[in-house]
Amino acid sequence: MTMIRMTLAALAVVTPAAAFAQDGLTIRDAYVRSANSKTAAAFMVVQNDRDAECRLTGASSDAAELVELHTHSEVDGVMKMHKIEGGIAVPAGGDHALARGGDHVMLMGLAKPLSDGDTVALVLDFGDCGTRQVDAVLDNDRADGAGGHADHQSH
Ligand SMILES: [Cu+2]
C-alpha cells in the first residue's frame, strides 16, 4: 500500500490529469478459488464510473510466481481457458465481471497452498487509469462468480 500511495503522490505532482483519473474505478466482490496447491483464480467486479473506458492490462501478487489475465472460450465444443492479449475492457459508466467460466486473474506457482479464508493481495494494473490493490479472500464454496448475487444459499 505504501508503494502505491507513493506512486499516486508522484503522479499528482507530475500530471494532475492522471491523478484525477484514479477516481471512479472500484473493485468489489473480489474472491479467490483454488482447486489445487499450485494454482488459483481470482474473480471480482470492476466498476468504472469514469467517462472513459478503463482497461485491465495486468495483475501481480506476491502469492504466486506468475499472474496472468485469462478467459475461457469454446474450442471444438469444449470450454478452455487461455491467456488474454490486450487486456480486459471496462466500459465507461459500466462494470465488468471477472467470473467463473469467463475472465479471471490466474495465479500460477503459488508460494504456498491456499485454504479457505486465506487472503491474497492483488495489484491490478489499469494502465492510464492507474493501479488498484485488492485483498481477495479464498472462498471455494462461493456458489456464483458473477459478483453481487452470491448469497451463499447453500450455507
Ligand atoms: Cu486461468
Automatic annotation (TrEMBL):
<dbReference type="InterPro" id="IPR036182">
    <property type="entry name" value="PCuAC_sf"/>
</dbReference>
<protein>
    <submittedName>
        <fullName>Copper chaperone PCu(A)C</fullName>
    </submittedName>
</protein>
<dbReference type="InterPro" id="IPR007410">
    <property type="entry name" value="LpqE-like"/>
</dbReference>
<dbReference type="InterPro" id="IPR058248">
    <property type="entry name" value="Lxx211020-like"/>
</dbReference>
<feature type="signal peptide">
    <location>
        <begin position="1"/>
        <end position="21"/>
    </location>
</feature>
<dbReference type="Pfam" id="PF04314">
    <property type="entry name" value="PCuAC"/>
</dbReference>
<keyword id="KW-0732">Signal</keyword>
